[in-house]
Amino acid sequence: MQSSLIHMGQRLKQILKQKKIKIVDFAAMAGFTNQIAHYHLRKSDMKRATMERFCALIGISADEFMRWNGAMQLTNGKSIHHGDRLQNVIAEKGLNKSKLAGRLDMSRRTMYNLFEKESFSPDELDRVSKGLDMSVDAFLNPGVVQESRSTDSEEMMLLREKYYKQLEEYNQLLKSHAALRDELVQTKKELSACRKQPD
């Protein structure tokens, strides 16, 4: 199960929203309080049996739950409409279409033509994936393959900077400690030499 790649609670919340099922109604269907429902929606992971029970309640299969994405639902393992997928990703990421066309190195008109295409050529898939800052697998398998997010990379950069700063401070402390230790050894030698001198 790919639960490690999917925030299960957020996925459940997304499905409830798209199926127009209020959280309070879902809680009643599941037979627990509103607070317990919110607890499940906050959890990143979920037991398979729990997920299957929730799927039965809201009328979808476990496979549909795992492959659910944005405004579309994949069923029976059918391939997705690439143009629709592109539009959904643009909407999900809140991308500016003119800027995206520039990143794809094509005119807006050419990009709009892609929206109509059921399947992209390998070159188009590659260009679109790079322009969207995601892998081809993530584009073709929504919800199954973890998509790279620019916010994640920004967070990683900040953490990396913090780590390097702390590493520098630590190295400086080590140097200071080594210098103090050498000074102490030298002072002990001098003191020992002073004690050995006759009065």
Task: Summarize the entry for a quick read.
This protein is mainly α.
**Biggest sheet layout:** none
Distance between the termini: 84 Å
Enter the CATH topology name of the largest domain.
434 Repressor (Amino-terminal Domain)
How many β-strand stretches? Answer: 0
- The helix count comes to 11
SSE succession: HHHHHHHHHHH
- Could you tell me the radius of gyration in angstroms? 29 Å
Strand residue percentage: under 5%
- Which CATH class of the largest domain is shown? Mainly Alpha
- Helix fraction, binned, reads 55-70%
CATH homologous superfamily of the largest domain, by name?
Answer: lambda repressor-like DNA-binding domains
Mean pLDDT, to the nearest integer, reads 81
Shape: elongated
- Class based on secondary structure composition and strand pairing: mainly alpha
Structure keywords:
3 domains, 434 Repressor (Amino-terminal Domain), 68% helix, mainly alpha, 199 residues, single chain, 11 helices
Walkthrough of the structure:
The chain has 199 residues and is mostly helical. The chain has three domains: 3-67, lambda repressor-like DNA-binding domains (434 Repressor (Amino-terminal Domain), Orthogonal Bundle), CATH 1.10.260.40; 82-140, 434 Repressor (Amino-terminal Domain), CATH 1.10.260.40; 151-199. The chain has helices at residues 8-18, 23-30, 34-42, 48-58, 62-67, 82-93, 97-103, 108-116, 122-131, 136-140, 150-196. The longest helix is centred in the last third of the chain and has 47 residues, at 150-196. Residues 70-77 and 145-151 have low confidence and may be disordered.
